[in-house]
Amino acid sequence: MPRRPIAGRLPAGANPRFAGAGRIAGPIFAADVENGARWRRHIKENAVEMDKKKNKLLLVEDNEMNRDMLSRRLQRSGFEVVVAEDGAQGIAIVRSERPDLVLMDLSLPVMDGWEATARLKGSEETRAIPVIVLTAHALEQDRLKAIEMGCDDFDTKPVDLPRLLQKIEQLLGRCGSTPP
User: Fold this and answer.
1) d(CA 57, CA 122)
2) What is the three-class DSSP state of 103?
3) What is the pLDDT of residues 110-146, one digit of tens each?
4) pLDDT greater at residue 71 or residue 13
5) 29 and 3 in contact (C-beta within 8 Å)?
6) Residue 160 and which of 40, 69, 121, 178 are 20 to 30 A apart at CA?
7) Which of 23, 102, 115 shows the shortest CA–CA distance to 58?
8) What is the largest CA-CA distance in the chain?
9) C-alpha angle with apex 148: 56 to 60, nearest 5 degrees?
């Protein structure tokens, strides 16, 4: 869809894609409005399926801004989200909270994501919990290492939410909720 301005401009500090998270003023584009409307329709149409069981996700992320932003977006998408700030805390939360899926950053304090994932996949009680690695390291060797360690998927930062939701839903076996 061509990016043509439609009536109005955003106020300074607003961004059509991030609901006020931006820092510049600019025109509102028809493509932005249409993409947002499609996503809202998708969430509304799949709300019944998503409400059947509110899956619990563990987000292990040390960067506070990334953790808060992603956890809010996942909650708005119908998930219950618990968070951990490092790998050791992540392992403890997996054992106490029993999440349905883990989103694991690799560069973490105390215990890095590599070690935390190895421990989760090495334990009989937690090995079946799917793990998606989230990392700024977009190298093919990192992806291959993650898969070899037993991770179920790999995604890069910055997070593309529709792509991540599709991976989560696929691993959880959720039907009928693939984003548009």
Assistant:
1) 20
2) strand
3) 888 889 999 999 999 999 999 999 988 777 887 888 8
4) 71
5) yes
6) 121
7) 102
8) 58
9) 30
What gap in Å lies between CA 57 and CA 176, rounded to an integer? 19
Select the more confidently predicted residue: 145 or 52: 145
> Rounded to an integer, what is the distance from CA 106 to the centroid of its chain?
14
Burial 115-135 (b: 16+ CB within 10 A, else e): bbbbbbbeeeebeebbbbbbb
What's the confidence (pLDDT) of residue 162? 94
Higher pLDDT among residues 19 and 31, named by residue: 31
With a CB cutoff of 8 Å and minimum separation 6, the contacts of 25 are: 9, 10, 11, 12, 13, 14
Q: How far apart are CA 114 and CA 66, in angstroms?
A: 19
For residue 156, is it left (φ>0), alpha (ψ between -120 and 50) or beta? Answer: beta
| Distance, CA of 112 to chain centre | 19
> What residues does 153 pair with on adjacent strands?
132
CB atoms within 10 A of CB 37: 11
